[in-house]
Amino acid sequence: MEKIVVLTGAGISAESGISTFRDANGLWENHDIMEVASPEGWRKNPSLVLDFYNARRRQLKEVKPNAGHTALVQLEEKYDVTIITQNVDNLHERAGSSHILHLHGELNKVRSTGNPSLIYDWHDDLHIGDLCEKGYQLRPHIVWFTEPVPNIVTAASICETADIMIIIGTSMQVYPAAGLLEYAPRLCKIFFIDPLPNLTPSLTTLDNLHVIQEKAGVGVPKVVASLLP
Ligand code: APR
């Protein structure tokens, strides 16, 4: 069975109604990204950070997977598919994809600030005073700016096994995720679906690159149809 590795970014969830990061003057839902998504922001104003992610978690209950998410599920009929996502939403899971690796954490999980291996499922608001079983404050299970990306090593080794790679809705600006492309084998066919594709030098030098300049809801079903008999 051929291996397809899909790398998704905020753009695949845009048509579900979740904002992307770099479309509005560096603001994310009216916040400076560093205030709500960095260890410094958490130290300075943990309540603001919790409120911000509480709003994101509530929003997740209101939105649904779109045609981009659901088309990817069909690929599993013929291919061994792994989705590596930079998104913290659960729309790939809800669409029905089987193998999903979250690079930047998950909105529906929280972890202990005193013992990071204590991770819990969490679907409702998180408050100051919500503690892990060892008595430490819980925080969102999100990889914030300047924090290490624990799943990057696993992601790189998955990319090394790709026959086909599909990149969807990412500005390819945030490392180490953007560097995953370097691990794809030389002959790997690469599809890049994005209405405003950021064709970085590491993309333009590839022989096997196919750019589909469309929104995910249109571009993903097209690419999937071309890969299925
Ligand atoms: N379909 C597909 N792509 C879209 C759509 C759409 N409907 N709408 C917008 N896009 C594209 C934009 O053209 C852009 O290239 O989605 C991309 C979104 O880029 P970013 O906002 O930078 O999101 P992403 O690349 O996922 O950001 C990476 O940065 O802030 C951090 O941790 C956060 O995971 C995030 C990481």
Describe this structure in words.
This protein is an alpha/beta fold and 229 residues long. The chain has two domains: 1-18 and 65-104 and 148-229, TPP-binding domain (Rossmann fold), CATH 3.40.50; 19-62 and 106-142, 2-Layer Sandwich (SIR2/SIRT2 'Small Domain'). The protein is 30% helix and 21% strand. The protein contains nine helices and eleven strands. The protein has helices at 11-14, 33-36, 39-44, 46-62, 67-74, 91-95, 152-159, 201-204, 216-227; strands spanning 3-8, 27-28, 31-32, 80-85, 100-102, 105-112, 119-121, 138-142, 164-168, 189-193, 209-212. A six-stranded parallel sheet has the order 5-4-1-9-10-11, with helices on both faces. Strands 7-6-8 form a three-stranded antiparallel sheet. The chain has a two-stranded antiparallel ribbon with strand order 2-3. Helix 5 runs parallel beside helix 9. The longest helix has 17 residues, at 46-62. The two termini are 14 Å apart.
